Amino acid sequence: MLSAKELTTELNHLQLPLEKDGTTAAEDRDRPTTQEVAAYLRNVISDLDATWADFFKRLGLPRRKLTSVLVTPEQGRAVSQCQEPARVIVIRYDTPNAVFCGADQRSPAGAGSIYLPVTTLQKVWEGDLFGKRVPSREAGDHSAAIIVAHEYAHYVTDELRWQFQQRWVTYPNPTGKWNELLADCMAGVWAAHTHITPHDVNESVIALKSIGDYDYNSPDHHGTPEERMNAVLVGFNGIPGRYAPRTPAACVAKYWKTTA
Predict the structure, then answer these.
(1) Contact assessment for residue 112 and residue 101, using Cβ atoms and an 8 Å cutoff
(2) Which helix (H) or strand (E) holds 38?
(3) Which of 39, 42, 91, 211 could form a disulfide with 115 if both were Cys (CB 3.0 to 4.6 A apart)?
(4) What is the pLDDT of residues 71-106, one digit of tens each?
């Protein structure tokens, strides 16, 4: 089993290219409708699909498809194939979290699903981050987008590991908070590639910082507010002297860990 250091070598110093047409930009309204949020999320997903597909292509790796499920008030709920103790995970339109389920096979040769509760992400846009309030001036469309990008990043790291495993090269799974901080960082890499303003950067950083926690002994510990803020900023800025901005290898070097 190889280490993250070897994986950073495989990834080289590939950067995500800067977005050309601003497809992830939205009118940053204080109170968007669920229809406006759903339309925006579809644009975000489309850009995530295209951007990470290009990254895998540049690595010379095929890519299994991720399914993205928008759970709207009209749909009500979606049932995943992942399980909590004794029951499958059901995601409602207002479930206070977005979810990645790597066990889902919703399409042939699929590689999991992300579930995006639209009403919850509408609230995130408005400054209600899973029950934690931030001032509306520090929230907006990129608050919701960075949450989506975080869940998508779980798929990206799973798929990287799986694709290299098909070549008889095995890397350990990142564990505990490192898996979450790695996803924060990869989300920052993607966000940095979009047409993003300083205000948008602040929305992204504040969103992830706001949902950090100090539950060190919990299996669901995602990292402290400071750790989550720093992780997304590594994605934006890279590691000075080592990795340029928008470089996934910077995230792997810093956060692909299996230690406490």
Answers:
(1) yes
(2) helix 34-59
(3) 91
(4) 999 999 999 988 776 678 899 999 999 999 988 876
As given in the structure block, the two tokens for residue 6 are 């070897």
The answer to whether residues 48 and 148 touch, using CB atoms and an 8 Å cutoff, is: yes
**Short-list 80, 76, 73, CA closest to 122:** 73
Burial of 78 per CB tally in 10 Å (0-12, 13-18, 19+): buried
Q: 46-52 long-range contacts, Cβ below 8 Å, gap at least 24?
A: 47/19, 47/23, 47/194, 48/148, 48/149, 48/152, 48/190, 51/16, 51/19, 51/190, 51/193, 52/152, 52/156, 52/190
Identify the segments of the chain with pLDDT beneath 50: none
Residue 74 near residue 35 (C-beta atoms within 8 A): no
Q: Report DSSP letters for 204-215, one per residue.
A: HHHHHHHT----
Q: Which amino acid is at 31?
A: R
- Residue position matching structure tokens 């720093």: 230
Q: Is 125 left (phi over 0), alpha (psi -120 to 50) or beta?
A: alpha
**Phi, psi (deg, nearest 5) at residue 70:** -85, 120
Q: Which residues are 31's β-sheet partners?
A: none
Contact 190, 148 (CB under 8 A): no
DSSP string of 136-154, one letter each residue: GGG-SHHHHHHHHHHHHHH
Residue 182, Cβ density class (10 Å: 0-12 exposed, 13-18 middle, ≥19 buried): buried
